[in-house]
Amino acid sequence: MNRILDEMKNKTFSREVTYHTLPVLVFEKELLYFKDNPYLPNHQAPISICIMTDHFEAWIESAKKPIINNDKEIKKLLKESKAYIKDNRKGLETTTSNITAKNILEKINDLNQINGDLYKLYAFFINESFETEDEELLEELPQTRLEMSKFAQIIWDGLEKCLEIISKKSGVKRSSIDRMTTNELRSLVKTRIYEDCSERQISIITKDNQAHILFGGEVTELAAILKQSRLKGQMRGSIASSGKANGRVLKVTAEQYKKLHEILDGKKDYILVTPMTRPEITPFIKNAKGIITDEGGITCHAAIIAREFKIPCIVGTKNATKLLQDNDLVELDAVKNKITKLR
């Protein structure tokens, strides 16, 4: 067995991000965001995992997940984040302009560098590393996260343009291009030699500031390890909006967001259980008695809308959608951070 996989079996991980798909080029360099990161508490970098099967997931080692609960430190990081965006916006616009087949590798290098620098700050927002009860910070954190998300999207759009140019110039289909590492893309541009990667499963594990790349069967084995990690323990997360509520579970999976009206129209007084909420579910929240999510923290969408609608909410449970089923009667105690299945 791969030694790194053997090590993963003895760890517990929490899933932080889920996407339908994401090009390897976009997330490959992001994983080194904790390397030499001056904002990392105690300078202890957790193991980070990105895994691409039929969808994309990002995981982090639970025991070493960075937590910043000092308001002074949170304010400092907020200030640095805003300054980074302000100081680098023009440079990013210059980098993303005039991308051509001739300068494609140079542009990829520049965008990867900016992406890595951004994520030294942005990672704390994505991983929901903040704990505070300061109302001003609770309002400012989501706003700053949104600004950083917009900045990151410009980088992603630039990398997306690079991938489109490489695909068009080489004649290689995008489904294969998206699964190639940066080194494989460089080789394709320089030599036109490549292997079809369109069906390839890939994972990148970052441990001790080193990246370990897995393919195929090893990725399948890693996915199984992460699934078991997610099922461990009780349903506990972070209190995003305090209060208590009893109700029947109404579960909405990531795939079901395409048919929200079919699932939620006419439903009332339910406890919404979902991996993470999205903006399109907001109109239905007025009929919910509470929210429980697998992912997120105090700055996530579920936390914001729960406080807006003044309903109890616990986010970041990691396993609620696995342990709770439709029509289960549950007690949601977002005062003691406790979720109890009654029957």
Walk me through the structure.
The chain is of the alpha+beta class. The protein folds into 2 domains: 3-231, no CATH class; 238-341, Glucose Oxidase, domain 1. Helix content is 42%, strand content 19%. It has helices at 3-8, 24-28, 71-96, 104-126, 135-170, 174-177, 182-191, 217-231, 260-264, 301-309, 320-323; strands at residues 13-19, 48-52, 56-61, 202-207, 210-215, 238-241, 244-251, 270-274, 288-293, 313-315, 329-333, 338-341. The strands form 2 sheets. A 7-stranded mixed beta sheet has the order 6-10-9-8-7-11-12. A 5-stranded antiparallel beta sheet has the order 1-3-2-4-5. A hairpin with a 3-residue loop joins strand 2 (48-52) and strand 3. The chain is globular, with a radius of gyration of 21 Å. The two termini are 42 Å apart. The model has no long low-confidence stretch (mean pLDDT 89).
Summarize the structure.
Helices cover 42% and strands 19% of the residues.
Largest beta sheet, briefly? 7 strands, mixed
Low-pLDDT regions = none
The global form is globular
| Major beta sheet, strand line-up | 6-10-9-8-7-11-12
What is the chain-wise order of helices and strands? HEHEEHHHHHEEHEEHEEHEHEE
Question: How many separate structural domains?
Answer: 2
Mean pLDDT: 89
Whole-angstrom Rg: 21 Å
Give the strand content.
15-25%
Q: What structural category characterises the helix and strand content?
A: alpha+beta
What percentage of residues falls in helices of 4 or more residues? 40-55%
Number of strands: 12
Oligomer: single chain
- Supply the number of helical segments: 11
End-to-end CA span: 42 Å
